[in-house]
Design goal:
OB fold (Dihydrolipoamide Acetyltransferase, E2P), 126 residues, alpha+beta, single chain, 19% helix, 4 helices, 9 strands
Length: 126
Amino acid sequence: MNIPDNIKYTKDHEWLKIEGNEAIIGITDFAQNELGDIVFIEVETEGETLEKEEAFGTIEAVKTVSDMFMPVGGEVIEFNPELEDKPELINQDPYGEGWIIKINITNTDEIDDLLSAEEYKEIIEG
C-alpha cells in the first residue's frame, strides 16, 4: 500500500498536496484499490467555492459510485482534463497523473485537522 509521507490525508480517503495557497486533491491508493476499476469521474464544481467536507464530485467504479469530499474549504480552480478520457489513471497513479482537482485554499487553519501519513495508515490498518 502506497502512503507517501509528503502529503496530508482525510478519513474519507482523499489526499491533499499543498503548494502555497493551492492544493492538489485526489483519492488514496487504498481508496482506488477498494473501488476497483474506475470508469468515470464527474466534477461539476469547477469555479465554485466549497466548504470543508462538501462533495466536489463523484467517482464511478465498476462496483459502485462514491462522492468525493473537500479535505479543506476552497475554490475548485481546475479539474484534471486527462481523467475525462482516462479515468483509469486514478487506478494506475493515484498520487501522480491520477490527481483529480486543484483548489485555492480559503482557510489554511483547516490543514491542521488533516491526517499525517502515519495517522492515515493507522485508520486503514485498524
